[in-house]
Amino acid sequence: MYVEKETEQLVIKRDGRKVGFDLIKIRNAVQASMVSCGVDDAAYLEAVLVDIVKSLPNDAAVTIDEIQHVVENQLMKSTYPDVARAYIEYRHDRDSQRASMTDLTTSVQKLLDRDKSVVNENANKDATVFNTQRDLTAGAVAKSYALKYMLPKHVANAHLKGDIHFHDLDYSPYHAMTNCCLIDIAGMLANGFTIGNANVESPKSIQTATAQIAQIIANVASSQYGGCSVDRIDEVLAVYAKRNYLKHEEEAEKWVLMERREEFARERTRKDIYDAMQSLEYEINTLYTSNGQTPFVTLGFGLGEDWFAREIQMAILKVRLGGIGKDKQTAIFPKLVFSIKRGTNLDAADPNYDIKQLALECSAKRMYPDVLNYDSLVRLAGDFKVPMGCRSFLPAWQDADGMFVNAGRNNLGVVTLNVPRIAIQSGGDKERFWEIFTERMQTVKDALLFRLERVREAKPENAPILYKYGAFGKRLDDGQDVDQLFNKERSTISIGYIGLYEAATMFYGGEWETNPEAKAFTLEILKELKGYADDWKAEYGYWFSVYSTPSESLTDRFNRLDRAKYGDIKDITDKEYYQNSFHYDVRKKVTPFEKLDFEMEYPEYCSGGFIHYCEYPKLTHNLKALEAVWDYAYDRVAYLGTNTPIDRCYECDFEGEFAPTAEGFKCPECGNTNPETADVVKRTCGYLGNPMKRPMVHGRHEEITQRVKHLESSNE
C-alpha cells in the first residue's frame, strides 16, 4: 500500500490552477522511469514515495516545480540513480515537446520535413498538392497560435499532454468556424441563393438542381471544417425530376403517338435522372474545397415511394455500382446512407424492396451504402434524419411554431476525452478512476464552453452561404446575431470519447467482453458522460451530446503519448492504437450477429454520434447473407456500415483484399503496389479512403491489418 499524505495540500499548476495533491501521479511517473531502466523493485518504489512525501514543503500549496525538484533529489539519492536520470530526461523531453507544439517555427518545419504525423493526418487530403500544402501551413499557424494565446491555459495543457483532444485546432478557435451540418438543400433550391457574384434562381430541371447542389456543397465545405450532409435527397430532387417529366410530356404530345406518350416521358426522365446523379457523383469527386480536400459529404435516401423518388434512388445506386473513371474505380465520395423502414423497403412485400436488393449489391461491391434503420433511430434520436457528416446525429428539435426541424442545423465542435489514460492513471483502482474522471470532465467542460463562446463570435458576413443564403436554414442579415441559429438546443456541441475497450482491460483484462461486470463498467462510463451532457444542457441551453469520436489519427496520438509515458501495457498501449468508440476489439474472432448484440446497448448513451460496423469476406456471391445481417440489425441498432474486401488490381485482375504491409498495401497475387494500377478502398473514420493514394497514420494501418486477419472468421 502506498503512503498517503495526511493533509489536503494543494498543488499550483503551471497554468495557475490549484488542485489537490495526487501521489499516484508521482508514483506513475517514477514507475514509468523504473520500467524504462528495467528496474522491478516494489519495496524501492514504496520507500522512494515515502521519502518524497516527507521531503515536500509543509506549505498549504506547492508548485509543480517544487514537487519535481524534490522527486529528482530523492531519486538521485536512491539505490538506482539510473531511474533518476530516466525521470529527468523524460521531464525534459516532455517539456521540450510541449513547447515545440506551440512553437510556430517547429510546426512549419514539420511540414517542410514532411513529418508523417502531420502530412498523413487526414486520409482524404493529398499533401503533395499546393492548395493542400497551403492549408496545412495555415493550419500549423492557427494551431500554434490557438494553443499559445487563445485557449485557456489548462485546456491547452490538457490537450498537449493528451488528457483531452481539442479537435480541429488548425481551424478553430483561430476562426469562429462551425463543425458539421445538415444543409437545408430543399430551402436553398426552392428559394434561390447567392454564391460569389451569382444570384441563383430555383432550378427548372433535375440536371440544374444537382449542378447547384454540387456548388452549394463546395461552398459549405469551404466555410466550415467538418462534414456536410444532404438528407432525403431522393425526395428533395423528386420535385425537379417531375419538371423534367412534364417537359417531356409536352414534347410527347407533339411527336409521339398517344399510347406511347407516358412511356416516352418516363424513359426520357429516367435518363435525365441517371445523367444528373452521375454528374453529381463526378462533380463531388472532382471538387476541391478551400482547405485542399474533396468535400466530406453524405447523401441520405431511401424513404421516397413515388416514381420519381424511386428512380432517383436506383440511379444513385447504379451510378455508384458503375464506378468512376476509365477503370471504374470505387467513388470515395459522397458517402451514401440508405434508409430502411418497415413498410417501405424492409420486407419482400414492401413497395421499395427491389431497391433494397440493389442497395445490398452496391454495398457488397462498393462498400456503400451504409444503412439507417428508421425505427431504431427514431427510438434513439426522437425523429429520423441522416448524420451530419459520418456519424454526428441531431436530436429531435421543434421551432417556435412547434414544427420539427432538422435541415439547417449543425454541430459546433468536439472535445474528446482520453479514457484509457484515466484507467492507466488509476492503477486499477475504481474509486481513483472516478476521481480522475470527475477532474478531467471539468477540463472538457471548460474546453467546450470556450469553443461555444468562440463560434458565437462569428458574423453572417464571415460565411454568407451558411448564415445569409440558407445553408443553416434561417437567413440572417449582416450584423445579426448568429447565436439564434445555435441556442435553445438547436445545435449540438459534443463530448467525445475513445478507448472503452482499453479502459475496461485495465480492470478486467483483455478478454473482458463476455464479462457482464466489465461491460457494465463501460456502460457506466457512457452513462456518466451523458449525465454531464444533460446537466450542461440544462445549465447553458445548448444541446451537449455524447459522441463516439471518429478517431482516424487520434487512435494513434493518444496511444503514442500514453505508450511514451507509461510504457507497453498488454492489450492497452502495446497495440500502437486505441480501439475506436464502443467497438468490439477488432483482433477477436466474432460473428456480425455477436458483434451487434454486444454493441447495441451503447448508443442509448452516445446518441450524439455513433456507427456500428460488421466485417465480412467477399460478399458479391452471397447477398442473402448480408441481408440477413441488415434484417437482424433493424430492431437492434440504428446505423450500420459494411466492411468487405473490394480491392482491385488492374495488372492481374485480382479482386478481393490487398495485403497490408508496413509501407501500405500490395496485391496478394502479383505484388502490385502502384496506386495508379490498383483500387484499394478502406474505412478511414466513417468515410472511405484510398490508403495507396492518401497514406494513413501508422495506427490506422495497424487497425486495418488486425481487421484483415479476422475477416474470414467474422461471418461464420
How many extended strands?
Answer: 23
Radius of gyration equals: 27 Å
Strand content: 5-15%
Unreliable stretches, pLDDT < 50, 5 or more residues? 1-7, 695-716
Q: What kind of sheet is the major sheet?
A: 7 strands, mixed
Overall mean pLDDT score?
Answer: 88
Short summary:
With 716 residues, this protein is an alpha/beta fold. Helices cover 47% and strands 12% of the residues.
Fold and architecture overview:
By secondary structure, the protein is an alpha/beta fold. It has a domain at 1-100. The chain contains 24 helices and 23 strands. The strands form seven sheets. Strands 5-8-9-10-11-16-15 form a seven-stranded mixed sheet. A hairpin with a 5-residue loop joins strand 1 and strand 2 (18-20). Helix 1 crosses helix 4, helix 10 runs parallel beside helix 12 (261-286) and helix 11 crosses helix 13 (307-322). The protein starts with 9 loop residues before the first strand and ends in a 7-residue tail after the last helix.
